[in-house]
């Protein structure tokens, strides 16, 4: 049995879903749900940091979310500036490093400036790295990595998984150990397609604005019960020793 702290995932990825339904149930506009969703994110960053999670990657705006009504899209863009103004100083003090992943080319200048400012101010922090996926899509990520590799002159025979990984948006982080999706849907919705090859999934009906430290602990407990084999053979301490490579928990 490994030490208790080794059961804490090093990297947690979250699809923060359910903001709109949370607001609708309260007869409020969807954007109010997003606003409360920001508070849930701030609390989750703190809770992850306290538990020793080193990387947290959250899906904030997908490449497909542009297809939502204009007022919702502009409300979400406005929230970026509000959230950065309200929470950035505290994040910086708490040792949070903020990174943005996604296609910045379609994002308005003022939103890009807010993200740039957040990244620059927190660049030297190391307590926890929070990557915000904004105008992000897993397919886009793989495609942009291929394009960069080609532009760098990498020959086809030299391109392998390790090399391509260096061009992916999360090249600075290990692959996620735990992928949480709130809101009850059982799908990836084009999040970290490349990086989730051996990630453990935890789905919960909890709507994102209701997500809290207790919900996080439930997800981590669920994760801690999983056998991660990565295609290999689990070590069985009670039985005969397997020949070949084996992975323990
Ligand atoms: C997730 O909540 C946040 C974003 C996609 C920006 P939703 O807005 O998708 O909420 P539901 O799924 O409609 O309840
Ligand atoms: C995924 O949620 C994107 C984010 C949480 C930012 P969606 O609500 O957009 O995904 P679908 O439409 O349910 O697949
Ligand atoms: Mg949704």
List keywords for this structure.
globular; disordered N terminus; 6-stranded parallel beta sheet; binds magnesium ion; alpha/beta; 8 strands; 16% strand; 249 residues; binds 3-methylbut-3-enyl trihydrogen diphosphate; 7 helices; two-stranded parallel sheet; single chain; disordered C terminus; Undecaprenyl pyrophosphate synthetase
Can you characterise this structure?
The protein is α/β, with parallel strands linked by helices and 249 residues long. The chain has one domain: Decaprenyl diphosphate synthase-like (Undecaprenyl pyrophosphate synthetase). The chain is built from seven helices and eight strands. The chain is globular, with a radius of gyration of 19 Å. Bound molecules: 3-methylbut-3-enyl trihydrogen diphosphate (IPE) (2 copies) and magnesium ion. One 3-methylbut-3-enyl trihydrogen diphosphate binds at residues 16-21, 61, 65, 76, 183.
Topology:
Elements: E1 11-15, H1 19-24, H2 30-51, E2 55-62, H3 70-93, E3 96-101, H4 109-121, E4 128-136, H5 138-151, H6 161-165, E5 178-181, E6 200-203, H7 213-224, E7 233-234, E8 246-247
Parallel strand pairs: 1-2, 1-5, 2-4, 3-4, 5-6, 7-8
One 3-methylbut-3-enyl trihydrogen diphosphate (IPE) is lined by residues 15-17, 59-62, 65, 185, 187, 189.
Order of the strands making up the biggest sheet: 3-4-2-1-5-6
Tell me the name of the CATH class: Alpha Beta
User: How far apart are the first and last residues' alpha carbons, in Å?
Assistant: 8 Å
Counting structural domains, the number is 1
Strand content: 15-25%
- Helix/strand structural class: alpha/beta
Q: How many helical stretches? A: 7
Radius of gyration: 19 Å
Largest sheet: 6 strands, parallel
Determine the CATH topology.
Undecaprenyl pyrophosphate synthetase
| Element order: H for helix, E for strand | EHHEHEHEHHEEHEE
- Uncertain residue ranges: 1-5, 241-249
């Amino acid at each position: 049995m490994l030490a208790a702290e080794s059961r804490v995932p090093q990297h947690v990825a979250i699809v923060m879903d359910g903001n709109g339904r949370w607001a609708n149930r309260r007869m409020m506009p969807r954007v109010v749900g997003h606003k409360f969703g920001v508070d849930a994110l701030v609390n989750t960053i703190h809770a992850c940091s306290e538990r020793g999670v080193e990387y947290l990657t959250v899906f904030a705006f997908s490449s497909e979310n542009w297809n939502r009504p204009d007022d919702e899209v502009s409300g979400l863009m406005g929230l970026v500036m509000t959230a950065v103004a309200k929470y950035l100083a505290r994040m910086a003090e708490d040792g949070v490093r903020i990174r943005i992943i996604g296609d910045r080319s379609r994002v308005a200048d003022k939103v890009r400036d807010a993200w740039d400012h957040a990244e620059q101010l927190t660049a030297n922090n190391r307590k926890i790295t929070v990557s915000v996926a904004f105008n992000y899509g897993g397919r886009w990520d793989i495609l942009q990595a291929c394009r960069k590799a080609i532009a760098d002159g990498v020959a086809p025979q030299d391109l392998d998984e390790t090399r391509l990984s260096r061009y992916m948006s999360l090249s600075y982080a290990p692959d996620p150990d735990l992928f949480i999706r709130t809101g009850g849907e059982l799908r990836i919705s084009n999040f970290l397609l490349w990086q989730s090859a051996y990630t453990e999934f935890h789905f919960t009906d909890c709507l994102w604005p209701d997500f809290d430290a207790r919900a996080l602990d439930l997800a981590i407990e669920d994760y801690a019960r999983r056998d991660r084999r990565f295609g290999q053979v689990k070590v069985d301490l009670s039985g005969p020793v397997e020949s070949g490579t084996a992975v323990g928990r």
